[in-house]
């Protein structure tokens, strides 16, 4: 029980970094009461010394030289909020090797090298915490590691990307196109000028890799996550979904069963009565199903300066408490289960299909026959004349549980068939 | 890093106790991987040795003599799931004094004597955890102490009693009376034969006292919670609420601002767009507003054998980890803020009023005048002929923010007035 002051080296001084500095100052007294230690920001590593910043800090605090921060023996904890793989990875490794604890918000890095870095931290006797990397303001990593330590999580469904959730909410509510909704999201600062990693689902895939690793105690890498974005979703899809009682969400699903683990991110129709269906705008939520506890859900802001900064600071408080008790490097959530990924033949889901078909006798029979051969049965069928062409019909099918392999096989047959004009869409269905 | 085995003494072998024994057996291997220790149930204290139990345990495990458990030096951790104040309190005190760590699910006890017992635990160098005492399957206490350690919680709203939430959900959905809904809840085992403590809000008040103490770092006692039950709610109230876009919930509210702290439990009209409005049936949820993080919500099962048992076991895992690291008795969430409770003049809320009035000129003007004198302005006014009597009208008012003192004063004036036939109801409004 030694220290009276803990010194922080901050790497990165963008949105989250600014939030961290603001909160450390605003909550100085509360933090002291919780930890018995004053928290002091000793140095901030920046790239561009000429850049104008929303927050002015004491002269001499800023540096562009990483070694003045990483080699400073006074610095106990490094907070990395610069993002990206390199040089962040090298900085974190060096910090750990020098015996400095690390708090990071870096999902790119943790989704790719989480296991490696956690093991390095454990070897160095250092803490490495990363609550802010998933669902900003929701303390979901702590909840999974501590709250669910006594249960077996079998399923997690996450709305973990605020940008796409905003776009889909707007498309559902106002029946505007994807392009229009994206433009509005950019105007409001919810989407970046290059929105690719959000829209394509990659950002969500990184977060799901982190959640799956923790929840299933194994090293799931972002490359293990099958991923599909929201770019192709049309207002027509959403209208049909609404009529059938579904809400479109970009969800990440991580499941484990006797065959292994599956992790995916894809546009999914969520039943209106499912708690995730009401998670709108830029909000995030993670639904966790535990074998013993059943259904739970954790909801909150997924990004933003202060929400993300609180996540960073809650990790900081944990590290400081560990320092005071002399138990750093002991709480790493290291993997202990073998990674067995499922193939398409054991990934089961319900599916929504929208087809344009020749409006003639026997078409539905043929489709049903192909489905039956793959042991797919139908939960809902809905047909109406196709507005584009009177001789054609629009057919909506919702299946019961089917394997991904079976549904892909049927989709191939449909696409090759003469009497199917077009496979407009195929989405997973949840709830 | 010493022990290979941790021995448990279980006090109480009802629903939750049975769940604990089941899970300790079912998850033996997972628990070992998490903690490096085998967890062994050494002794179970019961009241009635002749009672038939759903789970049969090894001969010699059961005892009716508390001293054989409390004085057994082999027992490291006591799990108390018998409930009630005495003898539970004495057992817990004795266990702590003997250096045994305690995990309890006892909300009655923690709501009344939480501060005292936590201080005793800290003095004895022992852990005292009580996650299962609030909202069974939701790890809300860990979330507040760890996840929000870096933020200033200003408001918590909890649906923390499953019985009343089931009754209100049924009344809203099916327009059945309170009595009918209660009977159905009893038939399904959601309500006890004597449902008083649920229906009157006392159970929820206990949980709000625990939440407020943790969230505001001060000792809030159940006696500090103002409490009103759901017994008087009518189907008519619910119909009007629905028309105006509200859902009736029994909510606990804990707020703090520059004037102090308020904690209450009362039937409240929650706006349909608020995340709590969608929390139905026996589910629980706690909405937490942090100054920096903003809106968050935590949702899950509030009771039941296995959900509650997982909460107990997650505490057990925490204690075992602390034992292994030699840091027991260091994580007690002790109070450090002064308790300042607000008076009615600084408790502000919106209110919904339903009145039966003489249908004559000047009535609304008079009511509006009384309101104006108390600086209460109206957000919504809705009038319709009263079915019971043609010369009377039914008047629904929703106010803007008003102090509890002001609204009570206006209610007094209304009750004394000749042209107000009846004040049918007055509810708090949230969101």
TrEMBL record, chains A, B:
Q: Does the keyword Oxidoreductase apply?
A: yes
Q: What keywords are assigned to this protein?
A: Amino-acid biosynthesis, Metal-binding, Methionine biosynthesis, NAD, NADP, Oxidoreductase, Sodium, Threonine biosynthesis
Q: PROSITE patterns attached here?
A: ACT, HOMOSER_DHGENASE
Going by the record, the broad EC class of this enzyme is oxidoreductase
At which positions is NADP(+) bound?
Answer: 11-18
Which SUPFAM superfamilies does the annotation name? ACT-like (SSF55021), Glyceraldehyde-3-phosphate dehydrogenase-like, C-terminal domain (SSF55347), NAD(P)-binding Rossmann-fold domains (SSF51735)
Q: Where is the ACT domain?
A: 352-428
BP GO annotations: methionine biosynthetic process; threonine biosynthetic process
Q: Which residues does the record give as NADPH binding sites?
A: 107
- Write out the residues that bind L-homoserine: 192
What Gene3D superfamilies has UniProt attached to this entry?
Answer: 3.30.70.260, Dihydrodipicolinate Reductase, domain 2, NAD(P)-binding Rossmann-like Domain
One of the record's GO molecular function terms: homoserine dehydrogenase activity
> What EC identifiers does the entry list?
1.1.1.3
Catalysis: reaction(s): L-homoserine + NADP(+) = L-aspartate 4-semialdehyde + NADPH + H(+)
Question: Which pathway does it serve?
Answer: Amino-acid biosynthesis; L-threonine biosynthesis; L-threonine from L-aspartate: step 3/5; Amino-acid biosynthesis; L-methionine biosynthesis via de novo pathway; L-homoserine from L-aspartate: step 3/3
Q: Which cofactor does it need?
A: a metal cation
* Keyword Amino-acid biosynthesis found: yes
Catalytic residues identified in the record = 207 (proton donor)
Family statement drawn from the similarity comment of this UniProt entry: Belongs to the homoserine dehydrogenase family.
Which protein are we looking at?
A: Homoserine dehydrogenase
Provide the species name.
Answer: Fervidibacillus halotolerans
């Amino acid at each position: 029980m030694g220290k009276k002051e803990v010194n922080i080296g901050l790497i990165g001084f963008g949105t989250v970094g600014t939030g961290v500095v603001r909160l450390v100052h605003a909550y100085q007294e509360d933090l002291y009461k919780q930890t018995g230690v004053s928290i002091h920001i000793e140095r901030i590593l920046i790239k561009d010394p000429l850049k104008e910043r929303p927050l002015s800090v004491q002269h001499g605090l800023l540096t562009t030289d990483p070694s003045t921060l990483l080699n400073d023996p006074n610095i106990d904890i490094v907070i990395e909020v610069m993002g990206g793989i390199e040089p962040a990875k090298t900085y974190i490794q060096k910090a750990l090797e020098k015996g400095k604890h690390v708090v990071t918000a870096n999902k790119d890095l943790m989704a790719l090298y989480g296991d490696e870095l956690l093991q390095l931290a454990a070897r160095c006797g250092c803490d490495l915490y990363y609550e802010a990397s998933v669902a900003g303001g929701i303390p979901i990593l702590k909840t999974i590691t501590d709250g669910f330590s006594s249960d077996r999580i079998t399923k997690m469904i996450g709305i973990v990307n605020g940008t796409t959730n905003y776009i889909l909410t707007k498309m559902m509510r106002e029946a505007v196109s994807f392009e229009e909704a994206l433009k509005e999201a950019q105007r409001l600062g919810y989407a970046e000028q290059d929105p690719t990693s959000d829209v394509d689902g990659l950002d969500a895939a990184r977060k799901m890799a982190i959640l799956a690793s923790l929840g299933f105690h194994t090293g799931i890498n972002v490359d293990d996550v099958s991923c599909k974005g929201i770019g192709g979703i049309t207002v027509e899809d959403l209208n049909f979904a609404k009529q059938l009682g579904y809400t479109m969400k970009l969800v990440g699903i991580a499941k484990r069963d006797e065959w292994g683990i599956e992790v995916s991110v894809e546009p999914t129709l969520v039943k209106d009565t499912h708690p995730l269906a009401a998670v709108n705008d830029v909000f995030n939520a993670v639904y966790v199903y535990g074998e013993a506890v059943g259904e739970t859900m954790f909801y909150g802001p997924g990004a933003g300066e202060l929400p993300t900064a609180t996540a960073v600071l809650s990790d900081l408080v944990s590290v400081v408490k560990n320092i005071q008790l002399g138990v750093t490097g002991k709480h790493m959530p290291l993997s202990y289960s073998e990674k067995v990924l499922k193939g398409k033949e054991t990934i089961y889901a319900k599916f929504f299909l929208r087809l344009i078909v020749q409006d003639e006798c026997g078409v539905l029979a043929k489709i049903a026959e192909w489905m039956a051969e793959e042991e797919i049965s139908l939960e809902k069928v809905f047909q109406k004349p196709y507005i584009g062409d009177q001789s054609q019909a629009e057919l909506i099918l919702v299946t019961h549980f089917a394997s991904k392999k079976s549904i892909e096989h049927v989709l191939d047959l449909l696409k090759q068939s003469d009497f199917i004009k077009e496979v407009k869409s195929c989405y997973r269905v949840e709830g």
